[in-house]
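Why do we care about 3D structure at all? Because function follows from shape, and shape follows, mostly, from sequence. That is the central idea of this module. The next example makes it concrete: a single protein chain, its amino acid sequence, and then its structure expressed as tokens.
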Amino acid sequence: MQTLHRIFLPVWVLLFSINGLQAQKVNEADCQELMATYRIPAMSIAVVRNGKLTHSGAYGVEANDTHLPINKETIFEAASLSKPLFAYAFLKLVTQGKIKLDQPLYTYLPYEDAAHDERYKKMTARMLLSHSGGFPNWRQNGKLEVLFEPGDRWSYSGEGYVYLMRVAETVTGQSMEELMQSLVLKPLGMNNTSYVWQGKFEKNYAAPHDFLGNVMPKGRPNQGNAAYSLHTTAEDYAKFMIAFMNQEGLSQSLYQEAIHPQIMIDKDKELGWGLGLGTQQTRLGRGLMQWGDNGTFRAYVIFYPEDKNGMVFFTNSSNGLKLTPSLTRNAFADDHPAFDALDYPLQFRPYERLIQQSLEIGFSQAIKIYLTTNQFHQDTSLINEGYMNWVGYQFMNMGRLEDAKQVFRYNLNAYPESANAHDSYAEACLKLGALQEAMENYAKAYTMDNSYKNAKAISERLANKPEGNVMMRLPAYPHATTVFVAGSFNNWNSLTLPMIKEKGEWRCPLQLEPGIYEYKFIIDGIWTIDPNNPEVKNNDGNINSLLKVMKE
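And the structure:
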């Protein structure tokens, strides 16, 4: 299975000063209308003027399945708005003389994760705070690489903040949560804020939602992460904004460095990054900002140190950042010159609307509107393969397998020579129980591209009646459409071992070496232990069935 990789793009928005502009009020009715337009269940917002909190609002419901209204104490994930708050604490340590901005960080803490590349020894706190240290946003395949010479250019990096966090923990002898509580949260009275999940949050938190408004599972971090794990409210976050603009706990010289760019991103557009916040100099003054994107939580903060004004908002939706232009215009009556530099979707993309309309009028009608609206004139060869593949997997994740199959069929018609198009279509067929069609398309995918190893394995298993020394059996669920078995014997792959219904039971022969294996059945997409096997293993709450294969 190959799907469209999700791309997280920077949000260079709303970097302006409100000096000389008439202050506006944030209108609750406008907020509610905007939230309805973009399918956003809840929002927490705070506005600061002249260094004081002048507006605080909490609108919407904590979850679309409970419909309970939120309040000003409702907890939201702050996502990357975690970074400026941590940067403030880190700068306090610099002010206290415990860390130096330009001393290589390895002298405080050698970093084994990057020790394979000597260039990491050039990284300083100044570089990592300004995203110019050379680390990627996140490591790939478990390996942390150094992408370029530290200090050479800007590249947004969560990994850089993780290393900074480890250094701060080492210098102070405190955990991430302990040092944030002692340096920032308790002194500022941020009582509804933490980098780890608190039991008291259970009574009043916002649940995450995808772009369609579906409620998703809520993560509960038990370890703090400077890059993304902050949980807070808009009112609490405003306390940090005010303290920072008042330079509390910071030397004057360090504060000036923090609010000025340490690295330029685009000199023509005057975009840069200071010590913890993005910067832009506009004709009205200097603006500081940070966006937050944890997928199903989106947030934004913008403030202006010269005038001590700003705004922060949190949402529990993948669509949350779409509110940014309207909210800032409502708050400050200003347009944003940096908007032209954006490559972030501030409206629903056409393929997102395709899914929304499919849920309302059915895919067969929605695809006609999509093709006509986007001037494809029913010519499926103009469909973007990656976007359409993404649409198909969204339907797959929702359990709408027939819709997913139709989407993948459109892709297959448009890209008949694409191995990925055949592979995705085969997966939909397999999950719908159309085994012959699945087998044929998996085989074609592997023929076109021999890197599709799973496609080969599944097609061969469906084409031939395999033998084995172990027969997996599931007498129950006679009305299921598809059943798979997955376990430690196939790296928990959910597709490579489809079970075939024969004589009233689901069967799957396996050839296994002697040993003990963990496994589960996947019944119409639901993972479950073997109802006929009492032997299980509990892995911190994840219970799997146990299979013991003895020597013959």
